[in-house]
Amino acid sequence: MSLDVSLQTDPGVIATDPVEEARRQVEICNACRYCEGFCAVFPAITRDKVFADGDITQFANLCHNCRGCYYACQYTAPHEFELNLPRALASARAESWERLAWPGGLARLFQSRGDALAAALIAGFALLFAVIAALPGEGEGFYAYLGHGAMVAIFAPAFLLPLAALGVSLRRYWREVGGGRLALPDWREALLAAGRMRNLNGGQGQGCNFEKAERFSDARRHVHQAVLYGFLLCFASTSSGTVLHYLFGMEAPYGVFSLPKLLGVPGGILLVVGCAGMLALKAKADPALGTPGRSSGERAFIWLLGFVGLSGLLLYAVRGTGLTGPLLALHLGSVLTFFLLTPYSKMAHGFYRMTALLREAQDKRERAGG
Amino acid sequence: MSEADAATLTGEVWDVVVVGGGNAALCAAIEAAETGARVLILEGAPRDYRGGNSRHTRNFRCMHHGALGPLVETYDEEEFWADLLRVTKGETDEALARHAIRTSETCLPWMQAHGVRFQKSLSGTLSLDRTNAFFLGGGKALVNAYYLTAGDLGVTVAYEATVRHVGIEGARATHVEVDYQGERLTVQGRALVLAAGGFQSDLDWLARAWGPAAKNFLIRGTPYNRGVVLKDMLDHGAETVGDPTQCHAVAIDGRAPKYDGGIVTRLDCVPFSIVVNKDGQRFYDEGEDVWPKRYAIWGRLVAAQPDQVGYSIIDARSIDLFMPSVYPPVTADTIPALAEKLGLPVEAVEQTVATFNAACRAGEFHPQQLDGLATEGLDPPKTNWARPIAEPPFYAYALRPGVTFTYLGLKVDQTARATGPEGPYDNIWSAGEMMAGSILGQGYLAGFGMTIGTVFGRIAGQEAAAHVA
């Protein structure tokens, strides 16, 4: 048996490189192991004794920033080891998204700068106002302002191209973390972990230490679940509309008791409430435990996502009035911006997180001999 | 939680003043506050370092019959007592010890009810899942939970409040003198709980007991256990227990921080290695027993070597056999090069390794059990896991004594009451490391410090509150 101890770092030498610094901290965690019960990161750490860059990328993306380990840690500053694992892993996480993004560079801009994201949103609004003004409508409801053909022409590529870009990034991720062939139980395990946000429950359902320091709270898990399920319902609403249109020849506008509305209205409400909650909790949380230099991009993204939900609800509320046109431009402009920026904004984290959960399920199964 | 200003501290006669801010102090404060008493905690450390050595702990040894919390099967009084007797070699007070053991069973649910969370035993500690309940997140998480609970109960906490002197008239404590926010304050209380730990962070005190060698000792825990209050009580003529010269020391990584290195500085490679001193000579059987049963004696062994340092040397075949050390090993492709890097006499080390290798004999090597693979004709022998150090690269870790706690403490009775020159004090109780020497006079039993702290902390709090009720 041998072990490549040359990968080990000196615990007393704080590094500026995010991956190197995360490695230093993870090595200290692996020698301590007191936090094993909080989340999936620590048991994953204990499976190895030394850590390659890909391992650090995996731990970083598995970490949900619940902060339980920080408040329990006996090595936080002023201790000379200066542990702040939530921050170290958040740094390595942001670094990995920006490094793995395709094309590169865009992610750095939109992850870190809220003003850039706001400018993109304004551009999205302007484009939609221009398109609505330039093209004639061709139907009922909002199609009276922007025809179905034009919508498809804009949104099909705006949806599919970012997905392709994300696919490239996730392939790079999978290679970097040493992922192999997935089995059905891996999907089940990862989907359950994501759906319940198990890694935000503190290990025993008491929640995390996000906005109340040492005190546990389930608020973040709940508002984040509102965002997740709100988003999925909205997405399902749009998808159901597409299916009704193409397969059943049923065109918008849909009534209150149609599938798109039954999914979309609660989805929009959850999304708005969830995003508002996320912003409120973020305002109370200690920024020193979050990602350095990414706060502005993170907040701007939550505003964008919340605005997508809110404008969608308002668009429905003002149906049949003269406000439909402007609101349609605002809603579709925000949706367009949201889609196009998915690989480069905080939205990407959902995809990386799901991939990390899959890799964790797979690694755990393989090491257990499954 | 109210963090007090100086006027708050001196503005009233407190019902109960608790000196110290670790597990025992917090248990006492919570118990007293639950009766409605006005309680003040004087914690010597700053908020970030609050909790004394409790912040480095990770489990609680607990008697139980059938599953209890995270504990499985049964761990009864007799087995617990036998374990204690074995490590202390009789240096214990049976009545007090049995009282602690019996009471531990009701403590675990009390701890849960006051915010402590337990988890299954940590990986690599499965052998303890019957005897020791592990804290989710470790001792600092426990300390945090208790501070929150104490705060919710209205307990006032002063951090960086260094108690310099206990005012005693006859058998009664009247006040304590505290350095706080740049002033010397007189804080009055009707009952006093002393739970301020041992004196292991006062290197001068250690040096008086151990000689100048103590200056090379590393302190595994808090730098704030300087024994100021203990010393003051000794000056008052309070009765003590425990050997004043002894401390519990284990062998840890020689590069560990001077203070507060805690759990991560431990080094588990000794059984698979040879250990040489600064002269390149072996000095003890490295394979005498499995490491959890031997790491404590190695603190003493290394302390007795010149410059209080040892070097554990292994080869490539053994590097993956133990829990990772947080410090990377010193690595070289030959033994002379390794000795050179360590600053050891090259020829002596080469000779020691060659002699050791020549004394090894063929046989089955089993790292997880006593394999009986012993050297022949070597002094000192290595009686297990004696496999030649032959396959490069070679690795070495420096070892130094790491002091965990001291044994000297205040003598207490079953109600945790301290005793002065004229018999028991009227209103002074003591708990935790400060009186643990009564029960743990020698050796160490994993998780038992927290048992003593919790049991006697709670008793001290109840008694103090009853006294002022």
UniProtKB/TrEMBL annotation, chain A:
Keyword field: Membrane, Transmembrane, Transmembrane helix
InterPro entries: Citrate_utilization_prot_B, NarG-like_sf
Transmembrane annotation, as ranges: 116-136, 142-166, 226-248, 263-281, 301-318, 324-344
Domain of life: Bacteria
Source lineage: Bacteria, Pseudomonadati, Pseudomonadota, Alphaproteobacteria, Rhodobacterales
Protein name: Citrate/tricarballylate utilization protein
From TrEMBL, chain B:
GO terms for MF: oxidoreductase activity
Required cofactor(s): FAD
Keyword set includes Oxidoreductase: yes
Residue ranges of every copy of the FAD-dependent oxidoreductase 2 FAD-binding domain listed in the record: 15-441
Alphabetical list of SUPFAM superfamilies matching this protein: FAD/NAD(P)-binding domain (SSF51905), Succinate dehydrogenase/fumarate reductase flavoprotein, catalytic domain (SSF56425)
Keywords tagged on the record: FAD, Flavoprotein, Oxidoreductase
Coiled-coil portions: none
Protein name as catalogued: Tricarballylate dehydrogenase
